[in-house]
């Protein structure tokens, strides 16, 4: 058999029994479909941060106290044993107290005989626990409203001042901050109350008008350090507008600090409102813990009715500590991340 015949036989065998390379098509790696949902890279980081926050002991204690106060503020009629109009001995307050009954007020804690008042009563016969529950709404409202107002003013001004550091805008904002830092808080509140009246809204405005200064200074310092980083310089070189640079490259790093300042301002506002209420500069017709302390002092039962004095003081201390605990936990989680 010649070499030509051998080649023909080999070709026939190849056609009858093709090799694996001849029959198996080459497959390229599958590309992900454009419609295939992919998890955001920020989602695992956010879940990890939330998990670490919820496992922080201070965060757990602070969040628990805030949830309890929030329940009292949202549904006080469910938590409180009586309504705000309840008076000892006479139920809804449509009757008159006898001389012996009025002399027994403020009454120590009673559990059904002659009435139900777990924390006792005030000098006017109202339940201390009831006033404590209904006062939670005012405390939480003042704290959150003042903190939000101060953050909405201080954080944007701090961003502007820090991003345009050394310019006329930065100088104008900082000179305004310096001037307002020289205004004493208590005389400012006295003047505001004398002009507009002793209402909760005026107290919130007075606290917010002085609390935003610290936010502005802290955020400005953080923004100044962030604007010197390489990625911000690269964004400027790429021609991105200042608004986009601030919102996408600076603000995400400022938000954790702003959250810490928010909870700290809420705690400071609650203390300030309680102090002003104790001094008689708040609305006494609104149920609040500071008004309860003022009434104890005004009626002269500071040393003889501890069941009336201690609950509002402890409630203020617990709520303020809860805000500080949450702020400390947020700062710790964001700092280590």
UniProtKB/TrEMBL annotation:
PROSITE patterns: ABC_TM1. One of its GO terms (cellular component) is plasma membrane. The keyword Transmembrane helix applies. Residues 136-327 form the ABC transmembrane type-1 domain. It is a multi-pass membrane protein. Residues 1-18 have a biased composition (Basic and acidic residues). SUPFAM superfamilies: MetI-like. It is found in: Cell membrane. It comes from the Archaea. Residues 23-39 have a biased composition (Polar residues). The chain crosses the membrane at residues 57-79, 139-164, 176-195, 201-219, 254-281, 301-326. The keyword Transport applies. Pfam families: BPD_transp_1, OppC_N. Residues 1-46 are annotated as: Disordered. Gene3D superfamilies: MetI-like. GO terms for biological process: transmembrane transport. Keywords: Cell membrane, Membrane, Transmembrane, Transmembrane helix, Transport. Belongs to the binding-protein-dependent transport system permease family. This is ABC transmembrane type-1 domain-containing protein. It comes from Halarchaeum salinum. The lineage of its organism: Archaea, Methanobacteriati, Methanobacteriota, Stenosarchaea group, Halobacteria.
């Amino acid at each position: 058999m010649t070499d030509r015949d051998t080649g023909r036989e080999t070709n026939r065998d190849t056609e009858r029994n093709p090799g694996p390379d001849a029959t198996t098509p080459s497959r390229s790696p599958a590309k992900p479909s454009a419609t295939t949902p992919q998890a955001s890279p920020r989602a695992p980081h956010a879940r990890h941060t939330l998990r670490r926050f919820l496992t922080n002991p201070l965060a757990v204690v602070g969040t628990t106290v805030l949830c309890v106060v929030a329940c009292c503020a949202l549904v006080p009629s469910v938590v409180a044993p009586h309504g705000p109009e309840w008076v000892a001995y006479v139920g809804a307050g449509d009757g008159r107290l006898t001389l012996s009954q009025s002399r027994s007020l403020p009454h120590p804690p009673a559990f059904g005989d002659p009435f139900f008042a777990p924390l006792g009563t005030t000098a006017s016969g109202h339940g201390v626990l009831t006033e404590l529950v209904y006062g939670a709404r005012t405390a939480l409202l003042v704290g959150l409203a003042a903190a939000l107002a101060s953050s909405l003013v201080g954080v944007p001004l701090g961003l502007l001042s820090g991003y345009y550091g050394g310019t006329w805008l930065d100088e104008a904002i900082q000179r305004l901050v310096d001037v307002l830092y020289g205004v004493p808080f208590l005389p400012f509140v006295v003047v505001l109350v004398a002009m507009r009246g002793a209402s909760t809204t005026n107290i919130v405005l007075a606290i917010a008008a002085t609390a935003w200064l610290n936010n502005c200074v802290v955020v400005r310092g953080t923004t100044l350090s962030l604007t010197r980083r390489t990625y911000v310089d690269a964004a400027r070189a790429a021609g991105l507008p200042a608004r986009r640079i601030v919102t996408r490259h600076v603000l995400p790093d400022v938000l954790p600090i702003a959250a810490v300042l928010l909870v700290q301002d809420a705690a400071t506002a609650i203390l300030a409102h309680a102090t002003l209420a104790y001094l008689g500069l708040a609305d006494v017709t609104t149920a609040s813990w500071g008004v309860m302390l003022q009434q104890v002092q005004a009626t002269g039962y500071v040393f003889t009715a501890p069941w009336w004095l201690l609950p509002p003081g402890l409630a203020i201390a617990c709520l303020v500590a809860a805000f500080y605990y949450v702020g400390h936990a947020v700062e710790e989680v964001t700092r280590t991340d």
